[in-house]
Design goal:
With 263 residues, this protein is mainly α. The protein is built from twelve helices and five strands. The longest helix has 25 residues. It is elongated and about 75 Å long.
Length: 263
């Protein structure tokens, strides 16, 4: 076999991988939502227009949402747009009983199963050791996200104002309350330190040790091996334990008595 042929065969897998990557990047901004029928056993699709007979405002509002912009119309052979039923399940049985909440239809407020049909990466996060109690059924995605609203990251009620993490404040008011001495990281939002969908670290921290703090606070001194934070050397302090659990900066969300974030 010629040398050129051997090289071509060796390079072929890499070429295929590149082409797949290019195609994926070109098509990843829009998603064809095809699931849904399996969510309601024995039901058939009825189409978006049928849903609009009772949910006209929701259907109209959905046109301007993030979800709508990232989904292609889901047309079947009968010309039915099944975009609503991709998340709520096929609606024929719901229609037969005259509608009603939870009447032969899937309510994402009660279960996150519809969301996980597409958001597999988030489902993997939820299955981590430390996460919000979604898999236990005590929460659902819609406690933090509003799929029918223009801003999916805000709750449907829209009653919370101000601050960097209004969604988190719904439950964690003591963590997001104003303090005399603030931790500036909260200006960036809770996700600066936490991954709300779950991590392998306690408290859903994105990193488990001092590296979490050093991302913002680390400074290298002119002295070899010395690490300063502000105008104080922390070289020996870092060896004593994690910043927030070694007895130093225990009030990581802010303090009312100490500028160094201590209780």
């Amino acid at each position: 076999m010629k040398r050129s042929t051997i090289l071509l065969l060796c390079a072929l897998p890499a070429l295929v991988a590149i082409l797949v990557s290019i195609y994926s990047c070109a098509t990843s901004s829009r998603m064809d939502i095809t699931p849904g029928k399996q969510l309601v056993s024995g039901a058939d699709f009825v189409g978006k227009q049928t849903c609009a007979m009772c949910h006209s405002q929701t259907v109209e509002d959905f046109k301007s949402t993030v979800h709508s912009r990232h989904q292609l119309p889901v047309m079947d052979n009968n010309g039915l747009d099944r975009i609503c039923e991709g998340c709520h399940g096929a609606g024929s049985l719901h229609l037969e009983v005259g509608g009603g909440r939870d009447a032969n239809i899937i309510d994402p407020r009660e279960t996150s199963a519809p969301c996980f049909q597409c958001h597999h990466n988030i489902q993997a996060r939820v299955l981590q050791r430390y996460s919000h109690p979604i898999r236990e059924g005590k929460m659902s995605c819609t406690d933090c996200h509003s799929p029918h609203s223009k801003d999916i990251f805000l709750p449907s009620s829209g009653t919370l104002i101000g601050g960097s993490s209004p969604v988190c404040r719904q439950c964690h008011r003591e963590k997001t309350a104003p303090h005399v001495f603030e931790h500036e990281a909260l200006r960036e939002g809770c996700t600066s330190c936490h991954n709300p969908h779950g991590t392998i670290n306690e408290k859903m921290l994105v990193q488990r040790d001092n590296n979490l703090c050093l991302r913002c606070h680390g400074q290298i001194s002119s002295a070899r091996g010395s690490i300063n934070m502000g105008d104080f050397s922390h070289t020996s302090r870092l060896a004593e334990g994690v910043c927030w659990s070694s007895g130093c900066h225990t009030a990581v969300h802010g303090s009312n008595i100490n500028p160094h974030l201590r209780y």
